[in-house]
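Lab meeting, item 3. Inverse folding demo.
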């Protein structure tokens, strides 16, 4: 059993051929297979020397799992604590996670199916071909604003992480300031990276990011089991009182309306839908030339399953350790003297340093597209000005807004619900109506399912937005 887990961790940490965000613009084109007789073609395939025509199922599964799990996973423990301080809240929280993960996986597949049917290669293009170019600004704006929330979350995390590292190494008081670190990193690290035209050199970030997240999950699980943060534990007295574990002692209702804060976070936790058409296009089809949808669904099930395992582990470990005291950025709960926590902060920070420019590219391109300046993006003046202004805006907001949980919940409430539930269901329903396919029992059932998904998305966006803006002040950072 242990060997299987080690193999899985190695697969996740290693770069895989196939689509990934950092390789999207630089991935080499496969050379066409040279002409050969059917007999020779069969012999080559049998010998394993036939050149690949796309990404394999395993590599696509690993890359999609990497794409799904982001920095927002570190806020999930605070999502549980927002509606309960009882350990009995974990089972229903995990059940919600699995339910939303399954629904997200289904809608991810829906986008790819509709995109393939209409000949689209992107999320925006799929919407435009289903609803018309005039309304394509709706998903374009949503994706752009989502990347803005992602950039803001990254800035908050690196500021807190490097400030904690500064405290541990005993540096000057200025280095222990989150705001100072945000400014310092924005000017001397993020700006040069974001000004780069070719981001292929950042591909190593995929490996570092995945390894850092996996290490964090293992570290948090270890601390949840060894009791070092419980009363009387090694590190209990080394953290502030408001960060010390706190659990309900009296029986009380576990579920309440604040559970929608967690639901909003989980909408973001399983969000990779704007890349669904790309993953479908990159996946190699079956050798018999048939539909590759069954292979794609294998990728979706495997990737979302791995993502659920990782997100569930981090959420459960964080809440089991700190309960109601779980912070919006859970690593803030751990003592600066905890050496293993230091490694987790370094790993997550390194991951974000490499990931930030990749997210920023999407933000910059989206803003330029909305301002109708995309055609001038190649001009140095436009490239530099847009980079400096957008980075300055993100960093400025991060100086004042310190609650990662609020950013993740608010982004998930509106943007996540739209991208994951509402838009895919609407595209499916419109496409099916325009295609005028025969109405079988299965077609009617799936139509009803998508109507339910769309309505659920609207409800989650409305309720989650209202609840996420009322996150308890105990989740604010102690900086």
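The presenter then showed the designed sequence:
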């Amino acid at each position: 059993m242990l060997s299987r887990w080690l193999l899985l961790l190695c697969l996740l940490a290693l770069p895989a051929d196939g689509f990934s965000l950092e390789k999207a613009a630089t991935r080499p084109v496969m050379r066409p297979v040279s002409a050969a007789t059917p007999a020779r073609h069969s012999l080559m395939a049998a010998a394993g020397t036939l050149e690949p025509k796309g990404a394999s199922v395993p590599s696509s599964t690993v890359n999609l799992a990497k794409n799904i799990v982001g920095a927002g996973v570190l806020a999930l423990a605070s999502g549980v604590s927002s509606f309960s301080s009882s350990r009995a809240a974990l089972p229903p929280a995990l059940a919600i996670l699995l339910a939303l993960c399954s629904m997200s996986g289904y809608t991810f597949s829906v986008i790819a199916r509709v995109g393939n049917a209409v000949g689209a290669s992107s999320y925006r293009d799929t919407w435009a071909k289903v609803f018309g170019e005039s309304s394509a600004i709706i998903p374009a704006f949503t994706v752009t604003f989502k990347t803005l929330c992602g950039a803001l979350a990254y800035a908050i995390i690196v500021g807190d992480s490097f400030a904690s590292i500064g405290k541990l190494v005993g540096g000057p008081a200025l280095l222990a300031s989150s705001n100072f670190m945000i400014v310092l990193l924005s000017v001397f690290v993020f700006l040069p990276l974001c000004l780069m035209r070719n981001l292929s050199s950042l591909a190593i970030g995929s490996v570092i990011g995945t390894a850092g997240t996996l290490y964090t999950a293992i570290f948090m699980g270890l601390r949840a089991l060894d009791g070092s943060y419980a009363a009387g534990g090694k590190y209990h007295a080394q953290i502030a009182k408001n960060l010390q574990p706190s659990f309900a002692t009296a029986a009380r209702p576990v579920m309440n309306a604040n559970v929608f804060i967690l639901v909003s976070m989980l909408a973001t936790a399983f969000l990779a839908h704007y890349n669904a058409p790309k993953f479908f296009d990159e996946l190699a089809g079956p050798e018999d030339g048939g539909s590759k949808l069954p292979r794609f669904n294998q990728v979706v099930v495997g990737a979302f399953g791995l993502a659920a395992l990782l997100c569930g582990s981090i959420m459960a470990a964080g809440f089991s350790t700190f309960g109601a005291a779980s912070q919006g950025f859970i690593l803030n709960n751990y003592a600066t003297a905890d050496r293993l926590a230091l490694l987790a902060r370094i790993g997550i920070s390194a991951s974000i340093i490499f990931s930030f420019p990749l997210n920023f590219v999407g933000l910059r391109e989206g803003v330029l597209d909305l301002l109708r300046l995309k055609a001038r993006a190649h001009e140095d003046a436009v490239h530099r000005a847009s980079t400096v202004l957008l980075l300055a805006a993100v960093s400025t907001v991060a100086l004042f807004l310190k609650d990662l949980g609020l950013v993740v919940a608010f982004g998930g409430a509106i943007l996540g619900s739209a991208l994951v539930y509402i838009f895919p269901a609407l595209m499916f329903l419109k496409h099916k109506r325009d295609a005028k396919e025969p109405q079988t029992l299965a077609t009617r059932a799936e139509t009803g399912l998508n109507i339910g998904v769309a309505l659920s998305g609207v409800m989650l966006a409305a309720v989650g937005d209202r609840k996420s803006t009322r996150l308890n002040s105990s989740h604010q950072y102690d900086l």
